[in-house]
Amino acid sequence: MLGELPCLETAEACIKELQTLAIQNSSSLAAIDERVQIVEQKIEEARKNNQDTIRLGVFEPLVQSYLKLETIPGQNGQPARQRGFLDRIFSIFAQPLSGINEVLSLIGVPLFKNMIGGGEAAQARTIAITDLQVKVAEIQRQRGELADKTREAVIMQVLDFDVVRRDFQVSQEIARREVLRAKLVEVDYRFTAEVSTQSYLSNLSSLDQQKAQTYRAWARMRSQMTRIKLLVLGAEDG
């Protein structure tokens, strides 16, 4: 009758086990966890991309300067020539102090911006990442509330089941006694004159009513058990 339910009673251990299953099998909670995981992955990717952008931004002016062709006028009747990437690289080795000063002059400002959080674009991305983190925190808070409601729902459903189960047991016991009494009345009706036909039929009607009440109690118990199975085994949330 319990099916896949491990237990179904008001004992604390049983209720905790049912609550754990209900949370594990909740499609709503699983969907929230999936969304949180996706957002956290996007946050991590955005943070990595932002750091990469900041690092590249530090060296961008240097790279642009070194890749630029520069025309140098000729001296002492010499023709003008172009100074390019290799010339700048060689100049670093030929004149180390001058080359280092040139490099620092090109990366100094971007490096300083990086130390204080990057440029406006980088700071905007950082703010966007923070907003996503706030949203994740809010989703997780809502998930906690939903989990608490699920636990509460399990408790209430189990308590309701305990009530209807007791009602069924009482009704079932009364029905057994009514069946036994009806048999005794039937014997008296058949073999004595102590029971009239009207009393006998009235007794049968009372027995039918008790059977109907027992069946309704059984149906309520089965219905309540079905609700618990749906809640705990994951087909229904909250």
Task: Give the helix/strand layout.
Elements lengths: L11 H13 L2 H41 L2 E3 L8 E3 L1 H10 L1 H20 L4 H72 L5 H37 L5
Antiparallel strand pairs: 1-2
Helix pairs in contact: 1-5, 2-4, 2-5, 3-4, 5-6
Notes on the structure:
81% of the residues lie in helices and 3% in strands. With 238 residues, it is mostly helical.
Can you tag this structure with a few keywords?
6 helices; mainly alpha; rod-shaped; 238 residues
Helix fraction bin:
over 70%
Q: Residue-averaged pLDDT, rounded? A: 77
Radius of gyration: 41 Å
Largest sheet: 2 strands, antiparallel
Strand order of the largest sheet: 1-2
Low-confidence stretches: none
Structural class call reads mainly alpha
DSSP strand (E) fraction?
under 5%
What would you call the quaternary organization? single chain
Please tally the β strands and state the result: 2
Label the overall shape: rod-shaped
* Order of SSEs: HHEEHHHH
Q: What separation lies between the terminal Cα atoms?
A: 23 Å
Number of helices: 6
